[in-house]
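Handout, page 2. Input:
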Amino acid sequence: MKSRKIYQGNHEWILFGRDPNKPEKIIDTNQYMIVSDGQALILDPGGIELFSSMFANVLKHVKPEQVTALFASHQDPDIISSLGLWDQVLPHAKLYSPWLWEGFIRHFGMENIEYMPIKDEGGTLKLGSLELQLIPAHYLHSSGNFHVYDPVAKILFSGDVGAALEDGDFPLFVEDFERHTEKMRYFHQRWMPSNTAKQSWINRVRRLDIQYMCPQHGRIFKGEQVKEFLDWFEGLEVGIASNNS
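Output:
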């Protein structure tokens, strides 16, 4: 697994991913960690199969006791099935996740970590002196779903929105947006079920100042590519199941 700092100022954003040792047929995922004032938050910490690699890489940057919070955008196993193992090494941490999924997420194992349910309208999350915004993204693709916006770094963690499923050691950032749309099209048409929900999210996100949009799968969008993605996504009809779409 590789780790790379994607933002460094008064706080840091670190990306973990591109794991060449992940099991066959397991999709590649991006995990992100924010470090502020000696406290760390891990966004969508990943599946149980990559916990050992993920934990080893986290320890290159912070001590276990500095990881005070986890965030799970929704309930999928690639997001949070590692919870039971994190629960053993982070006995005093908190998990911020949609209220809707608490009864399901607890099936992954949770004896010590405290569940912090996020209300449907979202809210904020304090990490040291940094205040992060929890942005509703319901039905994209989960019926209870959130993204995280950092107004200082101008970074949006966008979960499955903007995702592309790619194999190999592909680049960190989108290089050719038009070519990249072909890696995203089917994923968004099939996994995003609601055009109404899609438009609501776009309207909300257009009001944010975003320099980096960081999905949980695939490459990061930066600068003008964020607007290009929003324009492309707005024009895309979603909720389509045909392989030929």
